[in-house]
Amino acid sequence: MSTLRVLIAEDDRLTARVLERLLRQTGYEVQVAHDGEQAWAMYQQQPVPLVITDWMMPKMEGLELCRRLREQPQKGYTYILLLTARDHKADRIEALEAGADDFVSKPVDPDELHARLRVAQRILNTEQHLQEQNRQLLELNEELHLQAEQLEQSMRLIEFANRRFSELFENLPIPCLTFDEQGILHEWNHAAEQLYGYPKTEVLFRSMFERVFTGEAAMCMQSLMQMVLSGSILQGVESEDYSATGRVIHVMRSAFPLRDPAGRIVGGIVAVVDVSDRVEYERHLQNLALTDGLTGIPNHRAFQEFLAQRFTEAKRYAQSLALVLVDVDHFKQFNDTFGHPAGDEVLRQVAQILRFLSRGADFVARYGGEEFALILPCTDGQAAVQVAERLRQAIAEAEWVYRPVTASFGVAVLQPWMANHQQLVEAADQALYRAKASGRNCVCTALDPTDTPEGFRPPLKKAGKSAWRQNQVA
Question: DSSP code of 4?
């Protein structure tokens, strides 16, 4: 694999030199820009897979650079690490929406930087692998189309063409089969035997829906058969099949009509490509996109998707739903005292406690920074408070390396007047503020079930959460 190229955008020349030295020592090929416009110009001239950019820069800020990078058409994915000393949730969310993938706190800690870079390398490697597999699949599909055209022509050469077709068909490197107008299998090559696990003696001259294609796989093949017999040529049709042992096979099929010498359609030929590895890589990449790299639990994006889904279900079926926001107490002070690696270990241990002590149906995610979130389906306020209190006690009583760690909990439950899941988040955030204002290391609830929307004051959009909390105290 070639050396990974990195573009650094940092107006502070000392920080830029430190970053450049760290990356070159690790083996990266580094370019340095000292403002956002210079970085954008360098990227347009020579795109790179990894960009490390400061938030605040002259001429063009880091967030604007993120937006331009995401809008730029590109063959491969560009992973963006944002350098920032900001740790407010609203700032982090704004950066994620602008296109940032991850954050590195300033001043830069080499261990944290290398950990973030390893995450970026894994994601970029997976994306590159998927691109290569897709390229190979496209080439193979083009080859299949050419071979199928040759096969259709050979069918018109009667006996000579039949012999040639049989030899070619049997030795094709991909699974192939033919069927007639009744769905009876007439050819089943060696590659098909290996993929599906059925020998020729068990499937030839029998309906392909008798053993090979059953259930949902049979429905897909019946639809394909009808279209082919009507004269359609199908390419790249993806579905799931099952082997003789019950193993799920993700396949991509191409199918063509077979005609007799008079031109009448008498059946079809199907070529099958096993794309199970590609599907698994796609799932793996999706999992990476929804998993917090530090704690291994679902990230903010996964939390928002899950909460929106559960909120809709709870409203539709009149079910209860609770949300708990958790904030590690005095975390910034802990980081300043013991360093970011120690702080990261605290976040990992808190995530582990929340995950292993929560209930099976509960959803635990990292909300951002030192905040976590728990979604409790079919849970009323009293039960949610009990869950939160149990978790609070577990954190307070756990063994910690540097000093005792506690957390504050804000609990909110779905109210009839709530129109969207963000209102539930805002209510839980209000409760979390109450817990912190009450001395921390406690559980507080948001709205009383009898309260109305007029009694709920959402945060000020521009001033951020801190301004809203000052307004609440006032």
Answer: P
Catalytic residues: 370
Give the domain extent around 44: 5-108
Average pLDDT taken over every residue of the chain: 86
Cβ atoms of 284 and 267 within 8 Å: the answer is: no
User: Which pTM does this prediction carry?
Assistant: 0.46
Residue 124 forms part of a structural domain: no
State the CATH number of the domain containing residue 246.
3.30.450.20
In this structure, are 381 and 409 located in the same domain? Answer: yes
202: tokens are 């068990």
Rounded CA separation 167/161 (Å): 10
Q: How far apart are CA 59 and CA 36, in angstroms?
A: 6
Q: One-letter amino acid identity for 345?
A: E
Report the alpha-carbon distance of residue 174 to residue 200 in Å, rounded: 16
How confident is the model over 434-451, as a mean pLDDT? Answer: 82
Judgement on whether residues 79 and 201 belong to the same structural domain of the protein: no
User: In a 3-state reduction of DSSP, which class is residue 242?
Assistant: strand
By residue count, the chain amounts to: 474
How many domains in the chain? 3
> Alpha helices, DSSP H only, in 208-319?
215-229, 276-289, 300-317
Long-range contacts of 233-238, Cβ-Cβ distance < 8 Å, separation of 24 or more: 233/257, 235/141, 235/145, 236/141, 238/275
Structure tokens at 471: 């307004």
User: Is 137 inside any structural domain?
Assistant: no
Residue 145 lies in a domain: no
Token readout for 432 is 């979390």
